[in-house]
Design brief:
Chain B: This is Mg-protoporphyrin IX chelatase. The complex is a heterodimer. Chain A is α/β, with parallel strands linked by helices. Helices cover about 45% and strands about 15% of the residues of chain A. In chain A, helix 1 (about 15-25) packs parallel to helix 3 (about 40-50). Chain B has two domains: about 25-80 and about 120-245, Rossmann fold (3-Layer(aba) Sandwich); about 280-365, Orthogonal Bundle (Helicase, Ruva Protein, domain 3), CATH 1.10.8.80. In chain B, the strands form four sheets. In chain B, strands 4-7-10-1-11 form a five-stranded parallel sheet. In chain B, strand 8 (about 190-195) and strand 9 (about 195-200) form a beta hairpin. The chains are: A alpha/beta, B alpha/beta.
Chain lengths: ~600, ~375
């Protein structure tokens, strides 16, 4: 990219550069986390990538629900039966060796799948220990994770995101701009050959590390990826030495989108910019020797200038997405196939009424008889009899998700919030023992807020609880509706939801956001009926100091047991909730 | 007890020769050298101590992303000295019968002395997605289908016998595999009853797990199984971070060259581990030390005797690793957090951290 002068001007410039750098070293850089709704903008970027990648292993699409056989590999049934000996089918990771995997709907990726992908990205190979096969296949892949998430909680698992060098957000980029300058795939091929020769001064690594730390990026993968990206940038420019402009570009693309804080500026000279990047001029001086202080400042300034505007505003307001480590670990230990139960051994039986034939075990059962049966049948093919059939035993562990809906409004909060927190804490400890999930919703002022998405992680739960604020109006209807949506989502995932609503039942904000007690009450009852209609078990805990009919009416609309707790302490509350929460689990089992 | 009798049979390795590290199959990228790991003192120490005395019972590494948990465990493989095995045994039985013999070796032993060979200490990966048949072993499908023979193909548990079994992201491992591992780890024997096969073979291994507590807690029963538990944190010191990035980068650009440059340091560590193993049984544990350990455990209310026993063994192994003749308070202090922090009867919501509680108890018992 020789036209460094206009860098940063074109709105698509960063996206194009990330595509080009990634194409140079897909496996080394791990990948791109592409946050964009499906549409022309995303297709455009993917089109560039396809043009940039040299001929060879193709862009391979990976469905989000891919199972272990599809991802890692396993026994190829048809071929095995044909050949009369075990034949391995390679999974998507091994098939894509040397190329790029396109991961659809990455925000819905189960943690187990993310961990498998992460292992392959780290080691550059797939370790297959399945179906009686023990193999290793090279899998030097890069991953483009297509993140279609909408809310801040809908994010790909952090274990994967941490390993992808370029977080890219195409949101709001103009669709009809002319293409920015892009190298062609021959330039990329040249850069790939040059890549191993590119050296970087130690100061580059120092500057990138310093910038990462200043931006509050703690994972050490980020500066490493940035260093690699800087190298790729130099190679793409036909050089074998990393210059300041390469480091700045890497900081912009790799570090800036990960920032969790605005760097503390020691000297007031350069106030943190929303003003356009100083990189333009900075790169003019790229021929300068790499003096430590200027390079450090340069790299940090470049990264800082590129922090997305929205993120910057959040960071300034101290509302950073809660720490880089907790991002995206949305659902505790979400595992695939939970809905259908997890495999727990096999037994003899025929595959009927939804039982799944375990092919490998069936073959094993048939194997010892082959010599005999083949001779008998005068046929060289594998002889499988009914007796050999083995079906997979699936253990359906009823995982429950208890959703706490806490009224944190002014009317309920001040005397009761602490108690509600205490009860939730006790229940959390309980869930820890049972390995159940909990979620925490609070409603106050304008609406409902998901403080804690379903999780099994206690440290996160505890944190979410501590952050629960209080005060304001009571948007009761919004709270109930949010609980219903969350519970329905959990049910779709195969978990059994239960709702515990802690409120005084005195809503004063209607569904449409207008204030007024009558309308609010009406909306709350309607929301409660909808929840009941959805068949979701609930429990209402009246938190008002003197039990009043409002909460009782609400409980009736919910079809929920009512629990008045005037001056009850946390322990009593916990016992009561536990008793009620046990009921729905039994019902559903 | 003479030291020679216990000396591992590892051949002397010269520092510079590009010999593939013993635990690693050839053809793969050489692992990152253990000696080149920056910081993470507690994790390194725990792994080395477990290498000196496998009886300590496993290491669990909790930590942030990108702190080199897997790197350290894989690096350990290259450090381990070789061990004597029964030549030709598929389960790697020890010729002197420690840890039990498989059926074949028992038969052979009855007929005469067992032939001895040297083999690397195995460090076996249990990848996520592994199926049960590969973990415990199963009927050899290939031989069964093509020749109609009923033969047992040993699984990962057999491979890991007398070595290490490593599970990355252990909190994501499927529950029925966890149950199975717990069972085998407790009994030291793998019993396979499937497909008309009835096999039992010794399977004693050091379980090493790593995981991120943000992605779900570990089952208490499993956590209990680990002798040592260490927390790793991302370093926040800039100089240290720069060093990590520089070394990692140098390694990724030229794994073979980097490993060779660190060969001398790694060899030093290997020697230390060998020396520790050899000297372990000669290390004295004075009554005073035992008393201090007991007082520490009482102060902490650590459950059961396992904590005391583990701490004693870990302190002894550390002393052996450092060439000491007896366990002193320093050894105990340094191993106490790893040996005890996961055994405290814990309030699962107390975030003050069990590490802090151990520190407090240490001050109480040892002063300062």
């Amino acid at each position: 990219m020789t036209d460094g002068a206009d860098s940063g001007d074109h709105p698509w410039d960063s996206a194009a550069r990330a595509a080009a750098l990634f194409a140079v070293d897909p496996h080394g850089l791990g990948g791109v986390l592409l946050r964009a709704a499906p549409g022309p903008a995303r297709d455009r970027w993917l089109g560039w990538l396809a043009r940039l990648l040299p001929q060879g292993p193709p862009l391979r699409r990976l469905p989000v629900g891919v199972d272990d056989a599809g991802l890692l590999g396993g026994l190829d049934l048809a071929a095995t039966l044909n050949a009369g000996r075990p034949v391995v089918s390679r999974g998507a990771l091994a098939e894509a060796d040397g190329g790029v995997l396109l991961l659809a709907m990455a925000e819905r990726l189960p943690h187990g799948t993310a961990a498998r992908l992460a292992a392959a990205l780290d080691e550059g190979e797939v370790v297959l220990e399945r179906d009686g096969l023990a193999r290793r296949f090279p899998a030097r892949v890069g991953v483009v994770a297509l993140d279609e998430g909408i809310g801040p909680e809908e994010r790909p698992p952090a274990a994967l995101a941490d390993r992808l060098a370029f977080p890219l957000d195409l949101e709001g980029l103009p669709a009809r701009d002319p293409d920015p300058a892009l190298p062609d795939h021959r330039a990329v091929e040249g850069a790939r050959r040059l890549m191993p020769l590119v050296t970087a001064d130690g100061k580059v690594a120092e500057a990138l590390c310093a910038a990462a730390l200043a931006l509050g990026i703690y994972s050490l993968r980020a500066p490493l990826q940035a260093l690699r990206a800087a190298r790729a940038a130099a190679a793409l420019d036909g050089r074998v030495v990393v210059l300041a402009e390469d480091a700045s570009l890497a900081a912009r693309l790799v570090l800036a989108p990960r920032a969790t804080q605005v760097p503390a500026t020691e000297d007031t000279a350069d106030d943190p910019p929303p003003d356009p990047p100083p990189t333009g001029e900075a790169e003019e001086g790229s021929a300068d020797p790499l003096d430590a202080p200027p390079l450090d400042d340069l790299v940090l300034a470049a990264a800082q200038a590129a922090i997305p505007a929205g993120l910057l505003a959040l960071l300034r307001a101290g509302l950073a997405p809660k720490g880089s480590t907790s991002q995206g670990s949305r659902a505790g230990a979400l595992q695939s196939g939970k809905g259908r139960g997890r495999p727990a051994g096999v037994r003899r039986g025929s595959p009927k009424s939804g039982l799944r034939l375990s092919v490998i075990e069936t073959l094993r059962a048939a194997a010892p008889w082959q010599a005999l049966r083949r001779a008998e049948a005068q046929d060289d093919r594998i002889q499988v009899r009914r007796d050999d059939f083995r079906v997979a035993k699936l253990k359906r562990r009823s995982q429950t998700t208890t959703i706490f809906v806490v009224d944190a409004s002014g009317s309920a909060a001040f005397q009761r919030l602490a108690e509600a927190k205490g009860a939730v804490e006790l229940l959390l400890a309980d869930c820890y023992v049972r390995r159940d999930q909990v979620a925490l919703l609070a409603f106050r002022a304008e609406g409902a807020e998901l403080l804690l998405p379903p999780t099994r992680s206690l440290s996160r739960a505890k944190r979410g609880l501590a952050e629960l604020p209080g005060g304001g109006a009571t948007p009761l209807a919004a709270g109930i509706e949010a609980a219903r949506l969350l519970a329905e989502g959990e049910r779709r995932r195969g978990s059994i939801p239960g709702i515990v609503l802690l409120t005084d039942g005195k809503g004063n904000v209607a569904r449409d956001g207008t204030k007024g007690r009558a309308k609010a009450q009406e909306d709350a009852l309607a929301a409660a009926q909808a929840l009941r209609g959805a068949g979701l078990p609930a429990l209402l805990v009246d938190t008002s100091p003197f039990p009043e009919p409002a909460a009782r009416d609400l409980a009736e609309a919910l079809g929920a047991p009512y629990l008045a707790l005037p001056r009850a302490d946390a322990a009593t509350l916990s016992t009561a909730v536990r008793a009620a929460a046990a009921a729905p689990a039994r019902q559903a089992a | 007890m003479t030291i020679d009798a216990l000396a591992p049979v590892a051949p002397k390795r010269t520092a510079k020769a590009p010999v593939p590290p013993p635990g690693i199959p050839t053809g793969r990228r050489a692992p990152f050298p253990f000696a080149a790991i920056v910081g993470q003192e507690e994790m390194r120490q725990a792994l080395l101590v477990a290498a000196v005395d496998p009886g300590i019972g496993g290491v669990m590494v909790f930590g942030d992303r990108g702190t080199g948990k897997s790197t350290a465990v894989r690096a350990l493989a290259a450090l381990l000295p070789q061990m004597p095995v029964v030549a030709g045994c598929r389960y790697g039985c020890a010729p002197d019968g420690t840890g039990g013999l498989c059926a074949e070796c028992r038969d052979r032993a009855a007929a005469g002395p067992l032939p001895v060979a040297a083999a690397p200490v195995p460090v076996v990966d249990l990848p996520l997605g592994a199926t049960e048949d590969r973990v415990v072993g199963a009927l050899d499908l290939e031989r069964a289908l093509s020749k109609g023979e009923k033969a047992f193909e040993p699984g990962l548990l057999a491979k890991a016998h007398r070595g290490f079994l490593y599970i990355d992201e252990v909190n994501l491992l499927e529950d029925h595999l966890v149950d199975l591992l717990l069972d085998v780890a407790a009994s030291g024997e793998n019993v396979v009853e499937r497909e008309g096969l009835s096999i039992r073979h010794p399977a004693r291994f050091v379980l090493v797990g790593s995981g991120n507590p943000e992605e779900g807690e570990l089952r208490p029963q499993l956590l209990d199984r680990f002798g040592l538990s260490v927390d790793v944190r991302t370093p926040t010191d800039l100089a240290q971070r720069v060093e990590v990035v520089k070394r990692r980068d140098a390694y990724e650009r030229d794994p073979a060259g980097f490993t060779a440059r660190w060969g001398r340091e790694d060899a030093k560590l290997r020697k230390q581990v060998e020396g520790g193993r050899a000297g372990l049984s000669a290390v004295k544990v004075p009554d005073k030390a035992l008393e201090n350990i007991a007082r520490l455990c009482i102060a902490l209310g650590a459950d059961g005797l396992r904590g005391e026993l583990t701490l004693m063994r870990a302190a002894r192994a550390l002393a052996a690793l450092e060439g000491g003749a007896k366990v002193d308070n320093g050894h105990i202090r340094r191993m106490a957090p790893a040996a005890l922090r996961h055994r405290l009867r814990r309030n699962p919501l107390d975030e003050a951290g069990s590490g802090v509680r151990v520190e407090r108890a240490l001050e109480e018992v040892f002063g300062k």
